[in-house]
Amino acid sequence: GDFAKAHEFLSLGCFCGVARSLQALGLKTLAYPFDWTRAPVEGVIQCLDRRFEDFLTFTMATQPASVKQPVFVSARWGGSFWHHDPSSPSVAADFQRRAERFLGLREIPVDKPRIFVRAVNSTAELGAEPKLLAALRRALPRCHIRLLVLVDFQQHSGPRFYAGHSSEELLYYFVPRDVFELPSGHGQAGAAAGGQPWTMERHAEAYAAAIAFACRYWSGQEGVPEALTSFGSFADLEASVEQWDGGSTANEMFYPRRFQGSRL
């Protein structure tokens, strides 16, 4: 709709599922640095504050059994490259353009409103999202910015916000955990996915539903705000979350696993 056309949508990782969901919704025509990488929230903030200076760094190339191409791991900012060779001059030139585009230095006007979408890599990072929003504003001081934060693997799904941060600027969306649980009658799909009941398509569809909700909410469509769950504080929001970690952004693919063990 008109709201979507008036905004530029950008993925902040933590993996390529966000970019795929934006593509599926027709909201993504241009490439940005975090589309196809693994990215920790602190690393995204570092890249913004250093204007992507360290972005193409890595320590080594590895060949995991699960992927066909080499993976370039342990970037100085904590991410990894699963679809690109950052040592290639043509790839470096591509990422230079993507970084400039991110910072408002290319074809998208610097004052065009932007909606950033971040899928958390771990529920431990939830408290960092206001810092991420602040870093985005430092990097792009001339445009209106909103941040949608996707939290996977939740029994109780739907949109959330907490007092102290307006839902007009920072919105959380809890994604249902059945994305990672096989529906009955789909036995072969689990086997095809290496025993894991998950497909990128299903995951991107779940993200797309969250992004579509955020667009309806932020565009002021009638009846939408009633669907929001509000919390009095960040601590209350955090206490409602089913806790998990998605693996190391430096050298592992994204897959959420519940924290085990007991609290002291």
Automatic annotation (TrEMBL):
<dbReference type="Pfam" id="PF08795">
    <property type="entry name" value="DUF1796"/>
</dbReference>
<dbReference type="InterPro" id="IPR014903">
    <property type="entry name" value="DUF1796"/>
</dbReference>
<protein>
    <submittedName>
        <fullName>Uncharacterized protein</fullName>
    </submittedName>
</protein>
